[in-house]
C-alpha cells in the first residue's frame, strides 16, 4: 500500500450502480454513504461477495484504510474480515 501510515477505521458503505460503467469493472460498485466522513466519489475495494450477494443499495459497515496504489487515484481498501451489517 502506498499510504502505510494511514489508520484503519470503520466506514459505512453502500452498493450502487454507476450511471456510466465505461472503464469500470462490473455493474455494481461500492462507495461511502453520503453524509458520513468521506466523499461518495471514493471507490471502495472490498469482497465481491457484498456486491453479488445483497441487493443494490445495501449498506454495511466495513473496516477500511485509504490508499492510492503508489501515486494513483485514492480509494479505500477493506479488510474483508472486519464487516458488520448496519
What is the string of helix and strand elements? EEEHEEE
Percent of sequence in beta strands: 25-35%
> Number of helical runs?
1
The share of residues in helices is under 10%
Rounded mean pLDDT score: 80
Low-confidence stretches: 82-86
Characterize the structure shown:
By secondary structure, the chain is mainly beta. It has one helix at residues 48-53; strands at residues 9-16, 29-32, 43-45, 59-67, 75-78, 84-85. Strands 1, 2, 3, 4, 5 and 6 form a 6-stranded mixed β-sheet that branches. The N and C termini lie far apart (28 Å). Mean pLDDT is 80; it is low at 82-86.
Question: In short, what is this structure?
Answer:
With 86 residues, the protein is mainly beta. The chain has one helix and six strands, in the order βββαβββ.
Provide the descriptors you would attach to this structure in a database record.
globular, 7% helix, six-stranded mixed sheet, mainly beta, single chain, 86 residues
Topology:
Layout: E1 9-16, E2 29-32, E3 43-45, H1 48-53, E4 59-67, E5 75-78, E6 84-85
Parallel strand pairs: 3-5
Antiparallel strand pairs: 1-2, 1-4, 4-5, 4-6
